[in-house]
Fold this sequence. Notes:
The protein is α/β, with parallel strands linked by helices and 233 residues long. It has a domain at 2-162: Rossmann fold (3-Layer(aba) Sandwich), CATH 3.40.50.150. Helices cover 24% and strands 28% of the residues. The chain has helices spanning 26-32, 51-59, 72-84, 131-137, 144-154, 170-179; strands at 2-5, 13-16, 40-45, 63-69, 91-95, 110-115, 155-166, 182-191, 200-207, 218-219, 223-224. A hairpin with a 7-residue loop joins strand 1 (2-5) and strand 2. The longest helix is centred in the middle third of the chain and has 13 residues, at 72-84. The relative contact order is 0.15.
Amino acid sequence: xxxxxxxxxxxxxxxxxxxxxxxxxxxxxxxxxxxxxxxxxxxxxxxxxxxxxxxxxxxxxxxxxxxxxxxxxxxxxxxxxxxxxxxxxxxxxxxxxxxxxxxxxxxxxxxxxxxxxxxxxxxxxxxxxxxxxxxxxxxxxxxxxxxxxxxxxxxxxxxxxxxxxxxxxxxxxxxxxxxxxxxxxxxxxxxxxxxxxxxxxxxxxxxxxxxxxxxxxxxxxxxxxxxxxxxxx
Length: 233
């Protein structure tokens, strides 16, 4: 086990596996796109060790956050991290398959869903021999179509989704958002190297009653990681 202490959040302490799945910069990038929230319910689908719920709670005092994680080892670690940071009153972690979840699990509809989902198609590329890493990185337990179907089912009217995903799969993401009546609102491409193609994309969307009409998101200025000594949150 390795302890990670953030420099951005007044020494927020997070333990993560020494050899299993470990978060990278993606959760920080995703949280940087989410505006200030008040009196809202947030759901992190695939919360891993709990990094996103912890960041969002630090940024927003008056919120209720649920984290759902299918892998029991990571779910237990997320619970430990929540407890170690004294955030149990605002954050609840569940070890569950999100496809089996209902609104009753969360006390009603969700206002905001965030996710840093598996980003590789199940039969693409080399499958990591470490099962924990494989499930977190490949669409073995949850693919992007299933994720957006869950968002449609669990979100409140006009609820919003924030997802970080590989830029090369932007068409898959936008198509499934529209198919599930989630109108893409903004899109921001993330570049990790100067003069290189975007590696990631962060998209926000709002649940609507519109289906079958492709909605184009409004492009936001690109985020160039190499321009920042640390990620602004």
